[in-house]
Design a protein that fits this description.
about 100 residues, mainly alpha, SMc04008-like fold
């Protein structure tokens, strides 16, 4: 594996993160429950990780602010535009696969 400087690694990770966020914004047809059921994380998880990283660096960030960064709009707006009611099958799969805290 090619060695990269710490700065390069951070730059590449940030670019991959930005691409992931852009992809999730473009794929509003993919519901969070589907992401959770298939990958074990969703847009809300990503926004929580972002907020936790900011707070670890001493930068206060609210849940709503971090969600807006990930969704590209206020979360309530995104939900009204794109979120559907989860089907019984999706709910069952979530209960079987949800992360244990």
């Amino acid at each position: 594996m090619t060695a990269h400087s710490k700065e390069e690694q951070t730059e590449f990770e940030a670019a991959a993160f930005r691409r992931l966020v852009a992809h999730l914004r473009e794929r509003s047809d993919v519901q969070n429950v589907d992401l959770m059921n298939l990958a074990g994380f969703c847009r809300n998880c990503l926004s929580n990780w972002y907020r936790q990283a900011a707070e670890a660096a001493g930068v206060p960030l609210s849940k709503d602010e971090s969600r807006e960064i990930i969704y590209g709009m206020p979360y309530e707006d995104w939900k009204n535009l794109h979120q559907n009611e989860a089907s019984d099958a999706q709910k069952t799969a979530f209960e079987l696969n949800k992360p244990h805290k």
